[in-house]
Amino acid sequence: MMDKCEGEGFYSTSFKEKADVYVINGCCVTSRAAYETRLFAKKALQNNKQAKVIVLGCPSYMQREREMLKEIGVHFILGHSYKHEMPDFILRAMNGESGIFADDYSKSYVDESVLCRFGNRARAFCKVEEGCNFHCTFCILPMVRGKERSKSIENVLKEIKCLIESGHKEIVLTGTNIGSYRFGFKKLLQLIEQMDGEFRIRISSIEPVYIDDSLINILKESKRIVKHMHIPLQSGSEKILKLMGRPYKKEDYYNIAWRLNKLGIALGTDIIVGFPTETDEDFKEEEAFVKSLPLQYAHVFVYSKREKTPAASIKGEINGKIAKNRSKIIRRIIALKNYAFRKSLEGKRVELITEPTKVVIDGKAYRKGVSKEYVVVLIPSSVPPHERLWARIVHVNRNFTFAEYEEKA
Residue 105 in contact with residue 84, Cβ under 8 Å? Predict the structure, then answer.
């Protein structure tokens, strides 16, 4: 969208600055995400009461979300496929027009555009697939993103080549359900492996059902794919997994996790607590299972009831305070695992991609870098951004991981 808009004479600015038009890429996967979308819309109009606000994406398919966004004063609410017409909608908003554009075509649209830069970031995201054919009972994505459809291999490779030539050192392959890539996800990985250039590949998130012997072998032999995988678990209770409609058992996930661990691959996951009917015994089962896994980090969510999903009609809603307390317990377990993982890197060399972002801690400036293991590492601010380099971890505390620069990779 930025490429197209800047090509039409518009220029982007910080969200905190006063702008004529604010474009918000919205989400409604959880009630929190939907709330934050509305919050950004309100902040935009607080920044400039005369501004025009455009919200794009999932909220456009939900009646309640559309109504609340219109009440706030949003001018255009657009489905996914309309992002390629953003310059036109910006002009229309500035001319006083408004409306909702979200039809079924938006949920079957195949995005074959080729992106050649990803802002000022050192790491670029390449979306290879959109939509999902899974039927997890808690998930609203199939309703707002549609069925699985994939970008052609030719255009994925063309986009990666273009991003590399623009200076991006890491390409993150992403999608709604990336393992379902229509033209063969493993085939795609093998073709990317053969490409020229100095870059590395990261798989954003992939479902457990796609982790088989052939994929593990690709991960083992690859010189480009980083030693990190994000594989959603969702629940450590066998009963709750079944109610969620997840197509695997705890044993399957456990075996995958430890196989990857033996290859030196850091593991991240997603966990939902407070799913309807989750008893104390179910949660204790989940707690014990999470403790048994070799996790580097986890995104922990309290179950969010989403309208029209099968789980929304399941009786046995969990008290909010109980669910939040369970979330705190799992978060504490994950925090200890994350600290132990980072502590294990102390004294070791890691390969970093340096980002433009700087932070100040106790009066000292540092630059952020991301390791292959998906650890955010702080190095001296004098090290330039957009570099691929080797650094040595010199100190790890509960909150940060510090390193010294050694040499370019």
Answer: no
